[in-house]
Amino acid sequence: MALLAPYRTTRRKVFRALLTILVALIVAIAGYVVYSIHHVVHVIIPHSYANWTTGNLLVEYMETHDGNWPHGWEDLHEATSLTNKGEPLYWDFTNLPGILKIDWKADPETLAKAALASGPSSLKVVTRLDGSKLEDCWQQDANQKVAGYLIKRYSTSGAAKPQTTPK
Question: Which residues contact 151 (CB under 8 A, 6 or more apart)?
Answer without folding.
Answer: 112, 115, 116, 120
